[in-house]
Specification:
By secondary structure, this protein is of the alpha+beta class. The chain has two domains: 94 residues, Jelly Rolls (Sandwich), CATH 2.60.120.10; 53 residues. The chain has a four-stranded antiparallel sheet. It has a four-stranded antiparallel sheet with strand order 2-7-4-5, with no helix packed on it.
Length: 151
């Protein structure tokens, strides 16, 4: 599979200074960014979730694919250059190879998140009842319909 940056060469490049926001939590922009260089932080509810400096990283995909506002902000920690994809849903519809990259990335995230939740569940087994929330989260990832019935 080709590198995601190989599919972006015809796209516009945008630049952000340190401290600028690429995507704001709660907004609905319908665009994606693909990191070329620089470092960004992902912030949700005023808490830094992670920082990213890997060229080819994609931002905004969840909001575009789920047709919802951004669940987190993406803020530049250094000078950043990125490819900008306005009208991202239409772009993805016309570029299945790009969509496949996003699907693989999301599958990796789900794999690692599920593995993490299983590890937490095993660590917490029988220790504290308030950690039953981990069971509920894991169940909702495996079977969302069953999780709704538990509530």
């Amino acid at each position: 599979m080709a590198d995601i940056l190989d599919y972006c060469t015809d796209l516009d490049i945008v630049r952000f200074e340190s401290g600028q926001t690429l995507l704001a939590e709660g907004e609905r922009l319908g665009k994606l960014y693909v990191l070329i260089e620089g470092q960004v932080e992902i912030v949700r509810e005023r808490t830094q979730v992670t920082h990213v400096d890997e060229p080819g990283s994609i931002f905004g995909e969840m909001a575009v694919l789920l047709d919802m506002p951004h669940s987190a902000s993406v803020r530049a920690l250094s000078a950043v250059s990125a490819y900008e994809i306005p009208g991202a849903l239409a772009f993805l519809d016309g570029h299945p190879e790009f969509s496949l990259h996003i699907a693989a990335m999301l599958a990796r995230r789900l794999y690692y998140t599920t593995s993490y939740l299983v590890d937490l569940q095993q660590q917490a087994a029988g220790k504290r009842q308030d950690l039953d929330l981990v069971d509920q989260i894991l169940a909702s990832l495996v079977d969302p319909a069953e999780a709704r019935q538990r509530r």
